[in-house]
Design a protein that fits this description.
The protein is an all-alpha fold. Helix content is 71%, strand content 0%. Helix 7 packs across helix 10 and helix 8 crosses helix 10. The longest helix has 23 residues. It is elongated, with a radius of gyration of 35 Å.
């Protein structure tokens, strides 16, 4: 009868065990080397524990990233167990974070109002936009350019006056005429002056 807590050791793993005592590598570098050698065995074992090969691969990737960040690790008596436990802990942390961020059921989501317009409102808005553009294009060229400079390009009346060589009062009159025309076409009430 075999013990499932330790994977079957390969020849590479036995060589690694012998090399740990012979080298003066840091614990982090030893763990990185073991992770590379034992990756498939760890992936298989973690996949069984987490019931997902994808989650196991993500956990091993998280282990690699964490080890590459050079954490301070003291003496490790059983590097295989250390790597395995580290991967399990990181996988559990990821699950907790995912659970916290997606812990709304459909009933809670249905309480949020849908701000998207319905089909009728969308069609009416598109029709109104078409009429507004048509009315804008019906304006005299200079009045159209002044209107667009004000509302599209967000220029001040002084800037528009300088650009078109007009007095500021002339710009105001052109803007009022353009707005009056557009409100009439769109059937909007006139704003008080």
């Amino acid at each position: 009868m075999t013990d499932d807590s330790e994977p079957i050791r390969s020849a590479q793993a036995s060589e690694f065990d012998a090399s740990i005592q012979a080298t003066s590598q840091s614990a982090v570098q030893q763990l990185l080397d073991l992770l590379e050698i034992e990756y498939e065995a760890l992936l298989t074992r973690l996949s069984a524990h987490l019931r997902s090969q994808e989650a196991a691969a993500e956990a091993l990737h998280d282990v690699y990233v964490k080890l590459r960040a050079e954490p301070s690790i003291g003496d490790v008596h059983n590097p295989r167990s250390y790597l395995y436990r580290m991967a399990v802990n990181l996988a559990m942390n990821r699950r907790r974070n995912d659970w916290r961020s997606v812990n709304m059921d459909n009933a809670e989501l249905s309480e949020f109002p849908d701000s998207a317009p319905d089909q009728e409102s969308a069609v009416l808005a598109m029709d109104e936009m078409g009429r507004a553009l048509q009315a804008l294009h019906a304006l005299p060229i200079r009045r159209q350019a002044i209107f667009l400079a004000k509302w599209r390009d967000e220029k001040s009346q002084a800037e528009i006056a300088a650009e078109f060589g007009l007095h500021k009062r002339s710009v105001q009159k052109e803007l009022v005429r353009a707005e009056t025309h557009l409100r009439k076409i769109l059937r909007r009430p006139m704003r008080p002056v």
